[in-house]
Amino acid sequence: LFWGCLYYGWMCIIALYAAWWKDDRLEEHLPYKDAYWFSFISTTTVGFGDYYLDHEVIQKRDLIVWPLLFLTGFVLLSSFLNKLSECILGWFPQDGPTLEENLENTD
C-alpha cells in the first residue's frame, strides 16, 4: 500500500508538471485529467501517442527533468507491483517442492 501511494503521488506530480509545461511552452491549457492520463501511460510505458511532449519546444533542461520524472515513476511502479505480488503469493500455501527442487530432480 505504501508503494502504491507513493506511485500515485508521483503520478500526480508528473501530471502537475505536464500541465504547467504545456501551458508554459505552448500556452495551451491541459486539463488535469488529461495530464494525469499522460503521466499514467508514460510511467507504465504504454504510450498510446494521444498525449506526448512536443519536440519543437523541448529545451536542454527538459532532457534531464522528464527522464528523471519517468524513471522515478518506473521504480515506484515496479516496487508497488513487486510488493503486490508478494502479498498475493502470501495467500497461497507453499507446501510443495520449489521450482528449484523440481529442476534438480529432472533428468
Per-chain topology:
Blueprint (H helix, E strand, L loop, with lengths): L1 H25 L5 H12 L18 H28 L9 H6 L3
Helix pairs in contact: 1-2, 1-3
Give start-end ranges of low-pLDDT stretches. none
End-to-end C-alpha gap:
43 Å
> Please, what is the average pLDDT?
89
Number of strands: 0
User: How many H/I helical runs?
Assistant: 4
Rg from Cα: 20 Å
What helical percentage do the residues reach? Answer: 55-70%
Order of helices and strands: HHHH
The biggest sheet, with number of strands, parallel, antiparallel or mixed sense and barrel status, is: none
**DSSP strand content:** under 5%
Which structural class should the secondary elements be placed in?
Answer: mainly alpha
Cα shape: elongated
Q: Explain this structure to me?
A:
The model has no long low-confidence stretch (mean pLDDT 89). The chain has helices spanning 2-26, 32-43, 62-89, 99-104. By secondary structure, the protein is mostly helical. It contains four helices and no strands. The termini are far apart. The longest helix has 28 residues, at 62-89.
